[in-house]
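cron nightly-structures :: item 1 of 1
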Amino acid sequence: MKMDSWEKIVSVEKDLIQANEELADENKNYFKNRGIRAIEFLGNIGSGKTSLIAKIIEKVKDKYNIAVINGDIAGDPTDIERLGVSTIQINTGGECHLDAKYIRPFVEKLPSETNLCFIENVGNLICPFEFPLGCEHRVVVVGLTDGPFIIRKHPVTFRIATVAVINKLDLQEFLDNDPKKLVEDCKSINPKAAVVLTSAKTGKGIEELIKVLNL
């Protein structure tokens, strides 16, 4: 009996996901053997991923030799370079996520002294969740500007989060979006995830995020 075309597509997708998970495990061992703590940030464009990474770097750059890998469909290096850390820009040219195989050559180019690496995935909450990179943490970021239903609309993404960040608290007075309700939504979907409320603009919650990440 021949497989229908949709069955073939599902089968290929499962194979790709399985292969990626195996490569992610290899990456995890690679990071460990090189003494690199790797932390992935996921979130929509404009949620504040880059700003949060920059705020963390400002706080911990005297403790670590830091590198940042930034993934975009197209774009230029971020202003994180101004903080004096090594940065690698990956333009995927259309792919909506990074994957374990894709990042490996870039990881191998990190300076030998690197012991902390932030990887900022392509900006969306749909594509990246199925493709772990082999990082110690998967930090999922939403902004209050993403709306009150953002977490409930992306449950599968929040199930893979080790840390969930609700950002842009500085805009709360201008928005009809209760951060406490977002926390409740996240906890109902993934009780194991740590949830941190932040404002990358004011610095609120950054110290707590650093503590949760054990930096």
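cron nightly-structures :: done
The beta strands are 37-43, 66-72, 86-91, 116-120, 137-143, 163-167, 194-197.
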